[in-house]
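Today's session is about reading a structure prediction critically. Students often jump straight to the picture, but the first step is always the sequence itself: look for stretches that repeat, for charged clusters, for runs of hydrophobic residues. Only then move on to the predicted structure, which in these notes is written as discrete structure tokens rather than atom positions. Here is the chain we will use throughout the hour.
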Amino acid sequence: MAFQQGQLTATLVTSVVAAVLGSLQIGYHTGNVNSPARVIEEFFNTTWKSRHNQPMSEHSLTFMWSLSVSIKDFGALLGSLGVKDLADCFGRRNAILIANSLSVVGACLMFLSKTSESFEVLIVGRLIFGLFCGLVMSLNPLYIQGISPINLRGAFATLNQVSFASGILLGMVMGLETVMGTEKLWALMLSLSLIPALLQYVTLPFCPESPRYLLINRANEEEAEAALRRLRGNPDQILQEMEEMRQEASHSEAGVTVREFFIKRRYRHPIILVLIINLGSQLSGFNAIINYSTKMFAKFEEATYLTLGVGAINVVFTILAFFLVERAGRRKLLLTGYLSIALCNLLMTITDSMLQIAPEIRSVQVLVVFFLVSAYEIGPGPISWFIAAELFDQSARSTAMAFTSMLNWGGKFLLALFFPPLLKLCGAYVYLIFMATALVAFTVTMLRLPETKGRTFDDIAAEFRGADSIPLHNKTSFNTFP
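Below is the predicted structure for this chain, in token form.
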């Protein structure tokens, strides 16, 4: 990846790193609950027994644990509703800092659950942390894309997913029984997300607000230029970006309500694209593997370490996407990812249906799982979280990111809820549903998604403003087939 002289400044790098500390926390609490599940379930049972002089029934214990795990995604779904108001009222940077307080409160409650002998406190803590998740996974791309130069916009937005994937792996490691997933240390292990949360409070307040927000949303050119000077080292680039933002401001409305967002013709195509890309990402089977990989690997003595292997591959290919997103472009990576995911799901169906006949094929299934994770993180994983910020103008961008968050977290929640019964009902053929979803996303991406690499926000938005009734794949200016 080539960086132009003067673009990569200490302030820019610090601002991006400070922002993605939030997604690190989210990843950590995604990966840290699987390994110590037995220990925490025992805490639930012991607490119930001390109150009622009898152990919790197996059915109740299973329900309470499922609720504890899934409540985070439900909280994230609720939290996504606040993205627009928080981002537009307080600014992108300040909104992240406000949301970070929810992480601090949630982690403290999770830590105190053991001392207070209350599993209800743990559940409430995960719910509050979930609110933080729903806000931050959309606020981060909003802020990062608002401060990044055009040729680094996608790469820096991908760092949000790199941090998230790294957090998952870190959570998996810390949750091991040989590390901190023990009866004595599990509550302390859950509170470790306080470290990046506090680091964010130490660093982010000293980083500039998004110049794009200051100029377009607040009409404050002086502050916008001051912020841009801190972020860029090239005076010519500052003048160029200021002019580009003025152009976008001249085409932006004062504000777009949620109702207007869904009824305006100029947003119809971008909404369909965001809908298909995000549901294609979340319902492609990746989350089922992340949530249930330990059970998939149950027949192996090294099940725990195979799960860690999934986490490690997750990180490696997200980092690879960081380097490729500005070279190959968003569209090519999405197409490659969806097609590969569809193939992997077909192979999962074949291998899973043959396990009874040929148990040794389980080793092939492990490789398929690894390939599916790789395919997801090379494109759909990171790009689905930030593509909406590139397809919409500034007036609708915060609403679009709230919509993105709802789709992503809603998809995660639905999959966590329905995958076990679907697996029981359909068996190996459940993966064909994921394959069909990935193929639909591939088709819509191929026919409808413009390449946004290297283009200004106003340039992209202009295509939608001027072509309400023209199919995107017929517009040569979209550079759909570079």
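Discussion point for the tutorial: Residues 1-6, 467-482 have pLDDT under 50 and may be disordered.
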